[in-house]
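From the thread on structure requests for the teaching lab: each student submitted one protein with a one-line request. Submission from student K.M.:

"Model Cyclin-G2-like from Biomphalaria glabrata, tokens only."
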Amino acid sequence: MCFPKNERMALTQSVAEKLQCMAQRQKCFINKQNLKELSKDEFEQYMNIRTACFHFIKLPHNHFHTGSDTFAAAINILDVFLWKVKVTERHLTIVAVACFLIAAKMFEPEELCPSAKDLSRNFEWTTKDLCRMESHILSKFGWCSSTVSYLDFVSLFADIYGMSTDATSHKITELAQQCLAKQSTVLLEPAVLALSLIHHFKTENCTSPSEQQLLVYCNIQEQSLKECCESLSTIAASSPFCASKVKPKLPQRRFDKPSEMGITCLSTIEEDMSA
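Reply posted by the TA:
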């Protein structure tokens, strides 16, 4: 995306460059021209599978205490993969955990990143199955997993508004995750969600004369921003933030081993029982 010359001076050059970099990364990862339009029935099925997969990303995220950026990236990867590839119910856990593993390798410190072996202990498929699914997902993206999430924009937007997110960071991520549980990132742009979160949590004293430029630079439609802000308000009103909320824990065993369950595009995995 190219920024209009007469708009560039409204924000600092460093901010404009960061926005441009994120826009290019986003375009690379989610190129909507390559995603077919889903019919009503296909979209309903997509959202049903996505809801289940979302839960199985949340499980290892909570269990291994990974960062919010890992969780956000895993959801981005999941959303695009499910849109591109029809996933059966018996494969949903391994797809979800593979998306989580890819994201964890991107954002978690090496010494804290859960391994495929760690993750496979909690399910009925093997480490080899998980690694094969990980490779399969990456191949569908052309081995490009440089995803952009709402968190990439939140800190930048907060600085532009002169807003500190230190005291509200947990509330921001909690509300964002509740929103992502209901909406696919294929349809909800990360910049829209980030700016909506800033609007939701900012005080009246936090204003930015550059908001119109942000809408232009990030290609945000005012109607999309309004709808997302309303959605966040509804979610916050119906499910207020609670730090003591009980979280699901591993293990949750499901038999969906792709190497033993029907026809799959993954090669059959023969386990060496003597190993």
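TA comment: The chain has two domains: 13-29+146-246, 32-143. Confidence is low (pLDDT under 50) at residues 1-9, 241-248, 253-275.
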